[in-house]
Amino acid sequence: MTLTPHDHEVLNHLSGIDMRYHHGRNNYEIGAHRKALSLSIAGRFSMIAPVLIRPLYGITQRAALTHLNSLVGLGYLSVFHTHRAIDNRLYVLTRDGAAYASELIQYPIPFRSQSSPSLQVNHNTIAHDLMNAYVLLRGVNRVNRNGEPNPLWSGFVTEREFARLYPSHLVRTVDGLVREVNEKAGFAALELENSFKSRALRKTILEKYAYALKSGCYDKVFLFSQQRKIFDDARRLHDDIFEAERHAQTQSKKGVSLTLSDIERLERDLIFRTVFCDELQHTFYP
């Protein structure tokens, strides 16, 4: 699946949005920077919560709640309570907030008026979506031990943004795209694996990865998780599927879905990243 020149412009724009936190030289700048980034986060991820901004702004839970509640007071956010979020609450954009955030990121943010703010999110995926947002934001705001910038990627495209660029059912809607920090600055898909999957589902996902890699949607796939056991299970199933597909091809059996070149590409470009495993476990499953 190839993108149009316009789609390429959109992709480059989205991955170029500055989602880093710049602290500011005084209280006014600090407040302005936090307001802009928080609304950008809420707009791009359809939600925001204290767990996402505490590490970014280096503030306490109380300060994070005060900041987000101030945006509620300004009419930019609405809040609702849910046990599915680690903070037991989520904040979503209001109509005015969506309009303001759209101006900030120079990209339209869909807003659909609902009778309750809780209807603006999928409650079944709240835990996954918060962890995914956490990883994407941590990767671009990562620093070394000396406090100097050391990002894993320079920018990203969110799941919702990716789905608008690649609407085909043949392309799996990944949890995000990240622009790598290197000379080529290519794109990698980012997937958050927070649960075990069946062999059949793993096989379907691998087939869609293979299609997307061949089609040039991205150059590799980064897998993140809060549990190394989930990675171990995924690797086991991948190896089993690859072995079965190779055997089927040597026997000239029908129904082979992955070619040898697909398997080689997947083995090379599916990368399990453990960098945030312990941090995710500690933050979201204390």
Question: Could you characterize the architecture of this molecule?
Answer:
The protein has 286 residues and is α/β, with parallel strands linked by helices. The protein has two domains: 21-123, Arc Repressor Mutant, subunit A, CATH 1.10.10; 151-284, type ii restriction endonuclease, domain 2. It is 50% helix and 12% strand. It is built from eleven helices and seven strands. The protein has helices spanning 5-16, 27-45, 50-57, 61-73, 95-105, 126-141, 159-165, 199-215, 228-250, 260-269, 277-284; strands at residues 77-81, 89-93, 153-158, 176-180, 187-192, 220-224, 270-272. The chain has a five-stranded mixed β-sheet. Strand 4 and strand 5 form a beta hairpin. Helix 8 (199-215) crosses helix 10 (260-269). The radius of gyration is 20 Å and the shape is globular. It starts with a helix and ends with a helix.
Largest β-sheet summary: 5 strands, mixed
What's the architecture of the largest domain in CATH terms?
A: 3-Layer(aba) Sandwich
Label the overall shape. globular
Termini Cα gap: 42 Å
Output the CATH class name of the largest domain: Alpha Beta
Q: What is the SS-derived class? A: alpha/beta
- DSSP strand count: 7
- Write the element-wise H/E pattern from the N-terminal end onward: HHHHEEHHEHEEHEHHEH
Please give the order of strands in the largest beta sheet.
3-4-5-6-7
Tell me the CATH topology of the largest domain: type ii restriction endonuclease, domain 2
The helical percent reads 40-55%
Gyration radius from CA atoms, angstroms = 20 Å
Beta content comes to 5-15%
- The total domain count is 2
Ranges where pLDDT stays below 50 over 5 or more residues in a row are: none
Number of DSSP helical runs = 11
Mean pLDDT: 94
